[in-house]
């Protein structure tokens, strides 16, 4: 398995023009789509019992349609 130091050495030796950038660990509170998923979860998935998959899919569709028609709702989740 390659370690970061092995990769850095490889890049230095094979292409000194490339720079290895380290990204921060995953942080879902900074990821905007995760906030929208949370809104979907709170408004649809946790809203009660869904007797059929069709009923659940219809509620998800309604959530996305109302989100598209009212961008302020999405912004409120972000």
From TrEMBL:
UniProt cross-references to Pfam families, sorted A to Z: DDE_3 (PF13358)
Every Tc1-like transposase DDE domain range: 7-56
Domain of life: Bacteria
Single GO MF descriptor: nucleic acid binding
Chain coiled-coil ranges: none
InterPro entries in the record: RNaseH_sf (IPR036397), Tc1-like_DDE_dom (IPR038717)
Transmembrane segments: none
Protein name (record): Tc1-like transposase DDE domain-containing protein
